[in-house]
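Summary of Year 1 activities. Much of the first year was spent building the evaluation harness for sequence design. The harness presents a backbone, in tokenized form, and records the residue chosen at every position. We chose the following record to illustrate the format because it has been used consistently in internal testing since the harness was completed.
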């Protein structure tokens, strides 16, 4: 048998690639799978640079259901992903997510809330007074209502990635340290990949799980994806605020968010329209927090006028410029070429559902949930 021939080749060993490999092997333990990862340290991969937050508070049914499935998987993650007597610890903090609503965002949020209710989510509609009970530090500026998801929370993205990765390696997937140079095709069908070394691996099923690099991987197969690698910054701040228990993660209508990390520590971020697009800048700039975020934070939480900027990092969102949601499934004009791309900043929480659904599609099974957008 040809050692370079695989049933499935997965380009990218981040959380999407590893989760898909896991479900493929759960459906068929005999599959020969290659996960090709150009940087096993994951220095620039989005997964470890993520905030690790999960929520059911979306306005689209498919996104809500993906998070619901994710929470189900996480509830048994340590047992399901135990390898060599080690149970992975994803350090889940079920602190809840609190969305502040103003006049402009209230109506759309109410529609989302009704949808979440109809799908059985544990989400409450809050008056400003309720918001203050959940978040006493917030002065209620601009607040006309709020929503609170009690089961939403934050965890270690690397804990989840390692859980999937270690398990698939144990189950027999081949994890290769190599970079895919291009996807090889013949008569509108994928036939393999060529590595930077010149080596060729063969397969008629290939998954593009290259995260922020998905567009360039697809371009190599003659496909234009509307996915742009977009730089986002996160800053960790320390305050003297004494709190007895973790506050919920707090999200403002402007996109500003604040995740309480315990004691006086908070993680803060916000996306800006002029955030850099490209894969060559991972430098975190303290000035972005000082000049573009801090003053807004103090408007809402006056106690934040004194704080220490501890550290920060920059990572890439894989922004789907078409509609800001996942692109999943087989590219219709290229047989065997599957996408799990364009998650636009909320992919980490969707890895479980995406992994399962993509595996089902690739194996021609009836998908368990119909939550997919076919862009192509
Ligand atoms: C600052 C920040 C905060 C975020 N916060 C959240 C959050 O709170 N909740 C949430 O759900 N999501 C969040 N996200 C989004 C989330 O991180 C991503 O959607 C998710 O991790 C994408 O996983 P992935 O496996 O597709 O990509 P990645 O983790 O980037 O993995 C892709 C892998 O492909 C490899 N690769 C690329 N090209 C090639 C090639 N040619 N050959 C071989 N290997 C290749 C890369 O090295 C990389 O390891 C955040 C992202 C950022 C940047």
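For this record, the design step produced the sequence shown next.
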């Amino acid at each position: 048998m040809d050692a370079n021939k695989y049933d499935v080749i997965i380009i990218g060993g981040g959380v999407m690639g590893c989760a898909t490999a896991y479900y493929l092997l759960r459906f068929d333990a005999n599959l020969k799978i290659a996960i090709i990862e150009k940087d096993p340290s994951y220095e620039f991969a989005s997964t470890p640079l993520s905030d690790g937050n999960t929520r059911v508070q979306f306005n689209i049914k498919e996104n809500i259901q993906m998070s619901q499935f994710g929470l189900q998987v996480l509830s048994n993650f340590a047992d399901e992903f135990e390898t060599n007597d080690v149970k992975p610890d994803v350090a889940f903090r079920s602190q809840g997510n609190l969305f502040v609503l103003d006049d402009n965002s209230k109506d759309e949020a109410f529609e989302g809330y009704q949808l979440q209710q109809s799908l059985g989510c544990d989400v409450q509609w809050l008056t400003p007074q309720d918001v203050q009970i959940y978040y006493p530090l917030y002065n209620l500026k601009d607040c006309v209502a709020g929503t609170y998801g009690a089961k939403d929370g934050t965890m270690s993205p690397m804990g989840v990635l390692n859980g999937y990765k270690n398990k698939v390696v144990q189950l027999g997937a081949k994890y290769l340290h190599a970079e895919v140079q291009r996807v090889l095709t013949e008569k509108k069908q994928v036939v393999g990949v060529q590595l930077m070394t010149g080596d060729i691996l063969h397969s008629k099923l290939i998954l593009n799980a290259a995260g922020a690099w998905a567009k360039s991987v697809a371009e190599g197969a003659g496909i234009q994806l509307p996915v742009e690698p977009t730089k986002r910054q996160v800053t960790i701040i320390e305050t003297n605020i004494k709190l007895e228990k973790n506050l919920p993660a707090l999200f403002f209508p402007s996109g500003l968010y604040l995740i309480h990390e315990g004691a006086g520590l908070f993680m803060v971020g916000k996306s800006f329209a002029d955030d850099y697009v490209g894969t060559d800048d991972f430098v975190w700039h303290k000035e972005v927090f000082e000049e573009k975020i801090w003053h807004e934070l103090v408007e809402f939480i006056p106690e934040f006028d004194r704080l220490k900027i501890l550290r920060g990092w920059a990572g890439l969102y894989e922004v789907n410029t078409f509609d800001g949601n996942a692109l999943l499934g087989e590219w219709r004009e290229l047989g065997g070429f599957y996408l799990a791309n364009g998650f636009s900043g909320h992919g980490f929480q969707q890895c479980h559902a995406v992994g399962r659904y993509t595996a089902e599609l690739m194996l021609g099974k009836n998908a368990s949930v119909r939550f997919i957008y076919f862009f192509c």
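The chain is about 25% helix and 25% strand. Quantitative recovery figures across the full test set are reported in Table 2.
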